[in-house]
Amino acid sequence: MKVLLVSGSPRRGQNSEKAVEFSRKFLEESGVTVNSFLLSSKKVDFCVACDYCKSNSGCAKKDDFLEFSDLAFSSDVILFFSPVYFGNVTGQLKALFDRARVLRKGFQLEGKLGAGIALGHSRNGGCETTLDSIHHWMLIQGMKVIGNLSHYGGTIIDDFSTDEIGRESLLGVLKQLI
Ligand SMILES: Cc1cc2nc3c(=O)[nH]c(=O)nc-3n(C[C@H](O)[C@H](O)[C@H](O)COP(=O)(O)O)c2cc1C
User: Fold this and answer.
1) Within the chain, where are the H helices?
2) I need a surface site. Which of 5, 38, 99, 131 has the fewest CB within 10 A?
3) For ligand 1, which residues put their CB under 6 angstroms from it?
4) What CATH number belongs to 2-177?
């Protein structure tokens, strides 16, 4: 089993990346192979609807999206960790989602498992709507969405280190992968 952990936060070492690190340790200790892709240290430009991907096998833009697509293609599971920005994913993650139009050609992610983990400041601040956006992307890619054997996935409120309820919701996702 290979799991890819993607963080959509522009901030290094903060809540999303703390949750990614916690997940990496948990999964690796259970024998799972884990790769991470942290958007805080990557360059993934916007899709500009040039339609190059419609008549070619890749994207016209040669940036870190290529690394993401290689990792995604070789993984069995993809988990997206996103801060909540105005009730939705970050712009950085949305840019990656849009660039992934090229992966729908032949449905390259079809059948892979996916889950979302939303990290926000307020309990009612939009974690679930953020998870919705992640789930929609996965469904449009032909992936199979999993929750946390309770509700919709991981929902974590600042700060990751102290939100025990949030950590349990993340563990509900991770425990299905071991
Ligand atoms: C532009 C912006 C918009 C935000 N919008 C929301 C929001 O709608 N709801 C919420 O609960 N938190 C919101 N937050 C707070 C972040 O989602 C929260 O602090 C999150 O844990 C940050 O993740 P990070 O530490 O991985 O960057 C917002 C933060 C920023 C910078």
Assistant:
1) 15-29, 52-55, 65-73, 91-99, 127-140, 164-174
2) 38
3) 9, 11, 14-16, 83-87, 119-122, 125-126, 158
4) 3.40.50.360
